[in-house]
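__Record contents__

***
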Amino acid sequence: MILKYYKDCGDYKEVMRTDKKLFICPFCGEEFRGLAYHTNQKHGITSKQLKKMMGLKSNYQLITPDLKDRHRQIVEDNYNSHVKNNLQKKGVVTRYKKGYTGHTKDNWSPQALKDISKRFK
């Protein structure tokens, strides 16, 4: 049972939640625990684009609390075997090298520069 129905907002509709706290896709009307995953795969709309289209804050969660807790539990369960071991060796942080400036714009590929210029127009 749907608590609220869609509110027409032009080419797209408002993001709604069901009484089960599931998200309703504003484009196809299906229910999901993780709306951003669905819209990216089926409609080609990223979570950032979706939030902008719907007028949501950038920190708005597009997953249900139970799915968020499940993701947190997976990280906690695998912390020692994956996260900690991948970032540290014998207590030394290995992720960042001394003097490494990071992935700055001057060393981006031409394709990356082209994609980023399209994204922020």
Residues 1-91 form one domain. The chain has five helices and seven strands.
